[in-house]
Amino acid sequence: MKYPYRPILHIPKTKTEKIFDIIGIGCFLVSILYIVLQWNHLPDQIPGHFNGKGEVDRWGSKYELFILPVIGLFILLLNTAFEKAPHMHNYPKRLNESNVEAFYLNSRKMLNAMKNLCMVFFAYLNFEMVQIGLKQKESLDPWFIPAFIVIVFIPLAIGIYKQSKIK
Predict the structure, then answer these.
(1) Exposure string (b/e) for 63-101, b if CB count within 10 Å is 16 or more?
(2) What is the average pLDDT across 16-41?
(3) Is 5 or 71 the better-scoring residue by pLDDT?
């Protein structure tokens, strides 16, 4: 077969996906609002980068606070577009007419969870950068980076496991 079996299906979002979107996007938007509300109270220099322990290792202009929201918006838009095109995702050769909907739904749910977890972590990081800039904290919590890595890969692991169970 020259082209793999990839029909375009329109599978409605599940309730879980909608709830994840509300939580992820909501947290992200609230963090941007928080930056805007705190803007006049922020000093000219805010944390620009953190080392592996969560300590500030570079300070930068407070305008750098807009970098994470721009990156987050890019991630949000790109992943939302990919969620709408599960036929473009990568699947094993056993994809066929009888299991295509299960594969598409599993892949889209995995992508949705990872997208929204990233939005929550970006929101948390925005909040923390403002808090450190306002001298209310000195560094990120030491658990932040390991937690981010582990938590973002949980949906991936679950999705791969569920995919292996699709007949």
Answers:
(1) ebbeebbeebeebbeebeebbeebbebebeeebeeeebe
(2) 97
(3) 71
DSSP-assigned beta bridge partners for residue 59 = 47
Q: What count of other Cβ atoms lies within 10 Å of the Cβ of residue 116?
A: 24
Question: What domain count does the chain have?
Answer: 1
Q: Identify whether 51 is part of a domain.
A: no
Evaluate whether residue 23 is within a structural domain: yes
Evaluate if pTM is beyond 0.70.
yes
Q: Above pLDDT 90, what percent of the chain?
A: 83
Tokens of 52: 């592996």
**Is 121 a residue whose pLDDT tops 90?**
yes
Q: Could you tell me the sign of the dihedral formed by the alpha carbons of 164, 17, 19, 34, in that order?
A: positive
* Domain with 140 in it: 15-43+61-165
Pairing of strands 45-50, 56-61: antiparallel
**Does residue 136 lie in a domain region?**
yes
